[in-house]
Design goal:
The protein has 270 residues and is an alpha/beta fold. The protein is globular, with a radius of gyration of 18 Å. The protein has helices at residues 10-24, 28-36, 39-51, 53-63, 78-86, 89-92, 110-124, 127-131, 168-178, 196-218, 221-233, 237-246; strands at 67-72, 101-107, 135-139, 153-159, 179-190, 250-257, 262-268. The longest helix is centred in the C-terminal third of the chain and has 23 residues, at 196-218. The chain is built from 12 helices and 7 strands. The protein has a single domain (10-195, 232-268), classed as Rossmann fold, CATH 3.40.50. Strands 3-2-1-4-5-7-6 form a 7-stranded mixed β-sheet, with helices on both faces. A hairpin with a 4-residue loop joins strand 6 (250-257) and strand 7 (262-268). Bound molecules: S-adenosylmethionine. S-adenosylmethionine (SAM) binds at residues 17, 21, 72-75, 78-79, 107-109, 112, 141-143, 159-161, 164-165. S-adenosylmethionine (SAM) is lined by residues 17, 21, 72-75, 78-79, 107-109, 112, 141-143, 159-161, 164-165. It catalyses: a 2-methoxy-6-(all-trans-polyprenyl)benzene-1,4-diol + S-adenosyl-L-methionine = a 5-methoxy-2-methyl-3-(all-trans-polyprenyl)benzene-1,4-diol + S-adenosyl-L-homocysteine + H(+).
Length: 270
């Protein structure tokens, strides 16, 4: 059967997902480019453009307030780096003092965080991490963000992370809890194609090509088989809107990208 992991007990899923990302951490960025023919970069650019962090950061700087962003399941930093770039944090790092903008990357997996921190240092030097603290990395589980206080973030993002969480509804409730009232939740995730024929063609591609690529490039068929299965089993667009609403978010809605291969979901904490 295609769904080799579907009998995994819930309490084992977290352990298994940890193992998957431990083994893919080093090859993760290259594999993303190969599997999606580079399109994941466009999806991520579009996602970050939709957050409008650039104009939020401008408004904050004028009012000398703070803008706090939490990127959950942030892995090797792709979303956080785009946000930091859009908000001009590197430019501000040349002048001293703490940046009024902060992006916190939170991930359950220390290997992914290690790769992310290394990439951040290569890209920006130490200033953003150590001096202005515009960018920070911390370990944490999306479904119980016990290290984070209620009402503390203006924006919560999760990109290609929610489907890996064992208890998605708990993660949505946690997102609502840590957001400030009026704060925004944004999720970028694989979703479902509205047309069954397109969905079957896409399944043929993903179930055959992706595990084979995983084996050839990363010598790890099983992890990439898991990735494909987790995509297929995750909620479709409307179901995720419903789950967000049940978790107490308002204005839940989605936008499809590439015909629904991925979708951006967003909502507000009232
Ligand atoms: N957001 C990054 C990106 O778009 O490139 C990484 C996405 S990667 C496919 C999924 C990430 O989710 C991994 O880094 C994994 O460790 C993390 N993850 C899985 N389960 C998690 C959980 N329960 N809490 C926090 N992070 C989790």
């Amino acid at each position: 059967t295609h769904f080799g992991f579907q009998d995994v007990r819930l309490e084992d899923k977290e352990h298994m997902v940890r193992g998957v990302f431990d083994s893919v951490a080093e090859s993760y960025d290259v594999m993303n480019d190969l599997m999606s023919a580079g399109i994941h970069r466009v999806w991520k650019d579009t996602f970050v453009a939709c957050t409008r962090v650039e104009s939020l950061a401008k408004a904050i700087r004028c009012n000398a307030e703070e803008l706090t962003i939490l990127d959950v399941a942030g892995g090797t930093g792709d979303i956080a780096f785009r946000m930091v770039d859009a908000m001009g944090c590197e430019e501000r790092a040349k002048s001293s003092g703490r940046d009024p903008v902060s992006v916190t990357v939170c991930d359950i997996n220390t290997e992914m965080l290690r790769v992310g921190q290394r990439r951040a240092r290569e890209r920006y030097g130490a200033a953003l991490l150590d001096e202005t603290q515009a960018l920070s990395f911390q370990e944490g589980n999306a479904q119980s963000l016990t290290q984070l206080e209620d009402n503390s973030f203006d924006l919560y993002t999760i990109a290609f992370g929610l489907r890996n969480v064992t208890d998605v509804d708990a993660a949505l409730r946690e997102a609502r809890r840590v957001l400030k009232p009026g704060g925004r939740f944004m999720c970028l995730e694989f979703s479902h194609l509205p047309h069954p024929v397109l969905q079957s063609l896409y399944d043929v591609y993903s179930f055959n090509v992706i595990p084979t690529l995983g084996e050839a490039v990363a010598n790890d068929r099983a992890s990439y088989q898991y990735l494909v299965e987790s995509i297929r089993k995750f909620s479709d667009q409307e179901t995720l809107v419903k789950r967000m609403t049940e978790a107490g978010m308002e204005g839940a809605r989605y936008t499809n990208l590439t015909g629904g291969i991925v979708a951006i979901h967003e909502g507000w904490k009232p």
